[in-house]
Design goal:
globular
């Protein structure tokens, strides 16, 4: 019989400001998120976040499967703006490989301002108008799929002492598929992969206009909140490309002044002071992740490329880190290292293709997860 003795995060995303469109409220809505269990356990607890909301949010019914999730014994919960709320621990035995459905129903008008857009083979959601929180299935003719993850922030499982969580921290590249592929590679080990990523975020700056609010909070604001991860042992940081590519000058875009462009030294200091030092104080191993090619991206120029190369060299060699995951080397072209390898560019010259995300996952898993098969870059060229 397994000796369950500690809480470990088994699933997680960041919470950020959602994209500001014409409609920002929902009513009479059920959301359902399936989550695959990376290891077994006897209890579950759930954290819901209204971190970036400006109004209270009421979840009228919250279920895992057919079991109510309670909050101080109550079956509904009010998520206060700017706050995160953890459920009671509930007895809910799970086995490695089980898929649990987390569903919640919002009856009244609800500000949908706290969530994040996530993609990947393990990141799927469904919504329907009407109350289906404890239904066996969402009605096919009344539901649609979504990759927006609202309010549900983290799931912890009470599990064996040898299990652990690895945190993947970053921007849109990490909000897309490689953490899911890494979780697939890690399946069967003692490791859960927790994603803390928001598209568009930067280390040193953030936008306060509604046009770009969905690009999220800056590192100093995000990191202390997002690193609330039970059982975490390792942190992978793949962050900084938006600091380099966003500024274009107010004559081009009033919200992207040249004054936002940091020096490489400022980026290094930001990573050290905002991420590495606090993470080390938490007892975590910290892994740097190099920045990917940007050749052909709409704001590409040789000065930005030089910044990327200099920053990457620091990420590879700085003694601050416990090691480097060289994502750049895993996806770049052999003949033109400024660009993605053939088949590894999504088409926008910034985000990788699915094949490249798989290559990134192998690069990370081979460093962090023991007993991983070796990965040969040449297989994908």
């Amino acid at each position: 019989m397994t000796d369950n003795s500690k809480w470990v995060a088994c699933w997680g995303n960041a919470t950020s400001i959602t994209n500001r469109r014409e409609a920002v409220y929902a009513k009479d809505l059920t959301l359902r998120y399936p989550v695959r269990m990376p290891f077994s356990g006897s209890q579950l607890r759930f954290r819901f976040s209204n971190l970036t909301g400006t109004e209270p949010v009421t979840l009228d019914k919250v279920f895992v499967g057919h079991t109510p999730i309670t909050f101080d014994g109550a079956r509904s919960v009010c998520l206060l703006p700017g706050k995160e709320t953890q459920s009671d621990a509930i007895s809910y035995p799970v086995n490695r490989g089980d898929t649990i459905d987390v569903s919640f129903y919002m009856a009244g008008y609800t500000q949908m301002n706290s969530g994040t857009l996530i993609t990947g083979p393990l990141s799927k959601g469904t919504y329907a108008y009407g109350d289906y929180a404890d239904a066996d299935e969402m009605p096919l003719n009344l539901s649609r799929n979504t990759n927006w993850f609202y309010f549900l922030n983290t799931i912890d499982v009470f599990t064996a002492s040898h299990n652990r969580a690895v945190v993947c921290y970053g921007d849109s590249i990490t909000a897309q598929s490689w953490p899911d592929y890494m979780a697939q590679l890690a399946f069967g080990s003692n490791t859960a992969v927790i994603r803390r990523a928001v598209s568009g975020t930067r280390i040193l700056r953030q936008y306060d206009c509604i046009t770009y609010q969905a690009y999220g909070l800056k590192g100093a604001t995000r990191f202390p909140v997002e690193m609330n991860v039970a059982g975490a042992t390792d942190l992978i940081i793949q962050h900084g490309i938006n600091d380099i590519i966003h500024p274009v000058g107010t004559d081009v875009n009033p919200f992207r002044p040249w004054s936002d462009l940091p020096t490489v030294e400022e980026m290094q200091q930001g990573v050290e002071n905002i991420y590495v030092k606090p993470a080390k104080a938490m007892g975590l191993k910290v892994w740097s992740g190099t920045l990917l090619p940007i050749y052909g991206w709409r704001t590409y120029n040789e000065d930005r490329e030089l910044m990327r190369q200099q920053f990457n060299e620091w990420l590879r060699t700085s003694p601050l880190f416990d090691g480097c995951i060289d994502f750049d080397a895993a996806v770049r072209s052999v003949t033109n290292p400024k660009a993605f390898a053939d088949g590894f560019d999504s088409g926008d010259h910034l985000h990788p293709s699915e094949r490249a995300y798989e290559a990134m996952a192998h690069a990370a898993a081979n460093k962090i997860i023991r007993s991983m098969p070796r990965y040969d870059h040449e297989e994908y060229l």
